[in-house]
Write a structure and sequence with these properties.
Blueprint (H helix, E strand, L loop, with lengths): L1 E4 L5 H4 L6 E14 L2 E17 L5 H12 L5 E7 L2 E11 L4 E9 L8 H15 L4 E7 L3 H9 L3 E6 L14 E7 L2
Parallel strand pairs: 6-7
Antiparallel strand pairs: 1-4, 2-3, 4-5, 5-6, 7-9, 8-9
Length: 186
């Protein structure tokens, strides 16, 4: 297994990484508000039926990946390769205005999960951010992707915020909201 920088020649193969999200739990988000006093509570719950989502690379992510791999934009793009097959990808971009490195995408092929690849790639992102003298690494998950939340927590990320409006105005009804995570570097 080799983890190395993404090269422009790798770009076509990276869409083949099976980033399927499979989970039987979700993080239930409950909001209590009275005036400006707002409280959010997260609790792990079982989904009515297991969630299986293909989770393909979006066009926007593919564009950022191409820009970083070609050197047109700053960032970190690393791929894990096993016997010539691309099996994991991490894409991150510095956000100098916030002093952070933002994880844009992290995916591990379904057949290679639970082998430490995601952890190794997140630690590469953390080391990259330290090298840039940034204050934190940020990432975003959704409440219906408990495996990603567990991985971030295991790697030292702390839950820093909730966004219930990012995808639609009705995400709480659909049991989906965005969770913002930070790994402080100081």
């Amino acid at each position: 297994m080799e983890i190395r920088p993404v090269q422009p020649a790798d770009l076509n193969d990276l869409t083949d990484i099976d980033g399927t999200v499979e989970s039987s739990e979700y993080l239930h988000l409950e909001r209590t508000a009275e005036g400006l006093s707002v409280t959010w509570k997260l609790s792990e719950r079982t989904l009515r039926e297991p969630r299986i989502e293909r989770n393909r690379l979006s066009d926007d992510t593919q564009f950022v990946l191409k820009q970083v791999a070609s050197g047109a934009d700053e960032g970190l793009a690393v791929v894990a390769e096993h016997e010539g097959q691309k099996v994991a990808l991490l894409l991150a971009q510095p956000m100098p205005q916030y002093g952070t490195l933002r994880v844009v995408d992290l995916r591990v092929d379904f057949d290679f999960r639970r082998e430490g690849l995601g952890t190794a790639m997140l630690f590469q992102a953390i080391n990259h951010a330290r090298g840039l003298e940034l204050r934190a690494v940020s990432a975003e998950t959704r409440t219906d992707n408990v495996p990603a939340a567990r991985l971030l927590q295991k790697c030292g990320f702390e839950l820093a915020g909730v966004d219930t409006q990012r995808h639609t105005n009705h995400d709480l009804v659909k049991e989906v909201a965005s969770l913002v995570w930070y790994a402080a570097l100081d």
